Amino acid sequence: MDALMLLILCIIIIICLLSGIYIYLYNRIQDFVVKINEVESIIDNNLRNKYDNINKCVSIINSDESIKKDDDKKVFESIVKLRNRKISNFDLDRKLIDANNQFYSLKQKYPSLNQNEEIKTLSKKIEDCDEKLDVNRDYYNTNISEYNKLIKLFPTNIVAKLCKYEEKLYFDRKDMSDDDFNDFKF
């Protein structure tokens, strides 16, 4: 009887120990999932703010009489068309970078835009959004690196497989684990 009780006690201790290890490893992964979700939300808000500010610039540029060329006024057509499309934050970020570059080239081409107070204010807001996006992208990618390490390394890989966690891509959508070099877009 004593041997049976000792065996049951050992089994209970082993089950409790394994459960504790599982909970600890699960919580480590969850910690990174929460951090990643939070920074994704922050990035999303900053991208929306940048998009809104660039859209306001589009309105001002289209109404500016000193810009006479239709080609220059149509530079931002792709941004205006984004209103009705559903795209990922990764793609939106790339399109906003292109639009931002076009905006600054127009500012250089037409000095009257640099004199416009609304444009100055919006330019400052866009720069602020860019700074926040840079910081948040770095934070996101750092946490993605740690998360992906946990997903691949023993013993957290066992918990990850049980919970169906998968490796995530960096913010720039580069998949470092494949042989596809076309995803390295700038």
Structural account:
The protein is mainly α and 186 residues long. 75% of the residues lie in helices and 0% in strands. It is built from seven helices and no strands. Helix 1 packs parallel to helix 4 and helix 1 runs antiparallel to helix 6. The longest helix has 62 residues, at 2-63. It starts with a helix and ends in a 24-residue tail after the last helix.
Descriptive terms for the model:
7 helices; mainly alpha; rod-shaped; disordered C terminus; 186 residues
In terms of structural class, how would the helical and strand content be classed?
mainly alpha
Rounded average pLDDT: 85
Oligomer: single chain
Kindly estimate the percentage of residues that lie in beta strands according to DSSP.
under 5%
Shape: rod-shaped
Distance between the termini: 71 Å
Taking the sheet with the most strands, its summary is:
none
- The gyration radius over C-alpha positions equals 25 Å
Spans of at least 5 consecutive residues with low confidence: 180-186
The arrangement of helices and strands along the chain is HHHHHHH
Tally the helices.
7
Helix content: over 70%
Q: Could you tell me the number of beta strands? A: 0
Layout of helices and strands:
Blueprint (H helix, E strand, L loop, with lengths): L1 H62 L6 H4 L3 H5 L7 H21 L1 H5 L1 H36 L3 H7 L24
Helix pairs in contact: 1-4, 1-6
Explain briefly what this protein structure is.
With 186 residues, this protein is mostly helical.
